[in-house]
Specification:
Layout: H1 2-10, E1 14-20, H2 26-33, E2 41-43, E3 49-50, H3 52-60, E4 69-72, E5 75-83, H4 91-106, E6 116-122, H5 131-139, E7 144-148, H6 150-163, H7 168-192, E8 200-203, H8 215-224, H9 228-237, H10 242-251, H11 259-262, H12 266-277, H13 281-289
Parallel strand pairs: 1-5, 1-6, 6-7, 7-8
Antiparallel strand pairs: 2-3, 2-4, 4-5
Helix pairs in contact: 1-9, 6-7, 10-13
């Protein structure tokens, strides 16, 4: 734990590559994670801010720079890199992403390495997995797959049941179960058969709704981090999941004296102190561990 605290004191950013086709919901997810309603600011590799209009014009010409860094004012401790995915299907697109991942993996600077990869797959379309995506999963590294727009798949399931002659009431009652089966058959089963099976799967509904959150994305990301230093870094930079902070501190038997070094806000430290005073460690451990199926 001392090593983890030392690493956290030297590194202030957690770096994530998010991959996905157009309209996969990537920006919405990032805004939810960073609790922002504004678009991120974009910086080049030298840390200079880029005019959004320049980025927009480049995108309209079909140009995209995966090295650019996306940072939200609401939580500047996250650095995101964006890949448009492989909708075009060209080997060149796959090579750009795999080269980027490889270069980041080879750097000795932990702050410059990729700490997590989120792959967004919309489930409301007619093509579950593109051929290029299938090739990518066979040569890439472990990552977290985020199934987006599950509500769209539920709508497709409802339409299928109606086409099969089911009445509206019956179709409504069975649409979610059918959508889950479609998700497994069309997405999870094929991905479970690739060389580098994803580390975790997350299923998201309509993220445009105000009540929607990305709690599961945060939780599963933390659960895949086996390095104590990276886990501590991730927990300390995210600000929307207090339960995750509590879980990591409880399970690692963190001392109250180092809360300021471990946790992002004074509020969380106060929360722990209150738990200690009330002897709520056991109930807290059980309640929060259930998030991980423990």
């Amino acid at each position: 734990m001392d090593k983890a605290i030392d690493v956290r004191s030297k590194i202030s950013h957690f770096r994530i590559l998010i991959i996905g086709r157009a309209n996969a919901g990537k920006t919405t997810i990032l805004k939810k994670v960073c609790n922002s309603v504004e678009d991120p600011e974009i910086y080049n590799t030298r840390g200079r801010r880029i005019d959004p209009e320049i980025v927009k014009e480049s995108a309209e010409r079909g140009e995209h720079n995966i090295d650019n860094q996306l940072i939200f004012k609401s939580n500047p401790q996250f650095i995101f890199h964006d890949s448009r995915g492989f909708e075009g299907g060209s080997a060149d697109e796959i090579q750009k992403v795999t080269t980027f991942i490889g270069d980041r993996a080879q750097t000795r600077e932990l702050s410059e390495q990729l700490h997590a990869i989120w792959y967004c797959l919309p489930t409301d379309g007619n093509r579950p997995l593109l051929e290029a995506e299938d090739r990518f999963f066979k040569i890439s590294v472990p990552l977290i797959v985020i199934f987006t727009k599950f509500d769209g798949l539920v709508t497709k399931a409802f339409q299928q049941l109606r086409a099969e002659g089911k009445n509206i009431r019956t179709a409504n009652a069975g649409k979610v179960e059918l959508a889950q089966r479609m998700l497994i058959t069309n997405y999870r089963d094929p991905l479970n058969g690739v060389l580098f099976k994803p580390s975790a799967y997350v299923q998201l509904d309509d993220m445009r709704l105000e009540r929607s959150t990305c709690t599961e994305v945060i939780t599963h990301t933390a659960n895949t981090l086996t390095d104590a230093a990276l886990l501590l870094l991730f927990v300390s930079v995210q600000r929307n999941n207090i339960d995750l902070c509590i879980l990591c501190a409880v399970l690692e038997s963190v001392c109250f004296d180092v809360f300021d070094a471990l946790l992002p806000t004074r509020f969380i430290a106060d929360y722990f102190t209150e738990m200690k005073d009330r002897n709520q460690w056991s109930s807290g451990r059980l309640r929060i561990s259930s998030m991980f199926g423990g």
